From TrEMBL:
Gene3D superfamilies: Periplasmic binding protein-like II. InterPro entries: NMT1/THI5, SsuA/THI5. The keyword Signal applies. It comes from Rhizobium bangladeshense. SUPFAM superfamilies: Periplasmic binding protein-like II. This is ABC transporter substrate-binding protein.
Amino acid sequence: MSNIVKHSVSSALIGLGGMLACMAGAHAADKVSYGTNWLAQAEHGGFYQAVADGTYAKYGLDVTIVQGGPNAANSALLISGKIDFYMGGPQGEISAVEQGIPLVDVAAIFQKDPQVLIAHPDAGIEKFEDLAKLKTLFLSKDGYLTYFEWMKANFKGFRDEQYKPYNFSPAPFLADKDSAQQGYLTSEPYEIQKQAGFEPKVFLLADNGYSPYSTMITTTQAMIDAKPDLVQRFVDASIEGWYHYLYGDNTKANELIKKDNPEMTDGQIAYSIAKMKEYGIIESGDSLDKGIGCLTEAHYKAFFDEMVEIKVFKPETDYTKAFTTKFVCKGIGMAMKK
């Protein structure tokens, strides 16, 4: 065989090998679905980033983000096996344990719950406990049954008579200086500034002792048992996505967010990212030296004990079934921080 023919055959074999490798790589990507807890927003940015910049693909994952919203039932889809992961929270997972439903938190993206109470800037409310002086607190039913009970148990002066239902509009609050309303650190204060032209007083419950994690990666015990490697890859890739989103070029991720949620604006996204950084929502506590997503038993137990005190959970509940620490606190992605 001539050298030319040998070279041609060799080149063809190399090309075929490369094609087969690409095909194998494509087939090797595991399809994964992650359900969020609300419409697309910067608070979901790291997950969109990992889709947009190929981080999930690098980990052999083909990820679909299933957007939440007012009519979504993503937690139920996780329970029924229709999605693989969900953006849960410790209260939901501990409640699931009490109902015999094996849901497990495997990462805590938000070290602090972004829940806030918002007051008028000229109402004499300078610190969290001053909120007890107000006549009215506009709260959701869930807020009334959880963190308001926690507030009454830990601060003097809060009383049931303050409660009025929050209808997810700032109008009643704006009309009454002797009131405060609930909100999310990254959204309602921004909307109030836009509508009313003033910067409200904002009090983060987490900075006053309320300790739940938030924006979890939650899955089923069956998934952990059957596919621990897939769970680890999804957690690691998501964490890398969050570092890229916070400290890298997040343009493509934000484009995906706005595609899923056309009402989202660049101004709102920028405000949300700034507040998440300013208040240490993602990077504080254990995550500072162990990486984004870190989840510890001590932190989880502290929240459980708080909820037992206000009778949200039964003291005999085995809260340790609601989480595992084996997939996080490994410093993944920290080198990406600039």
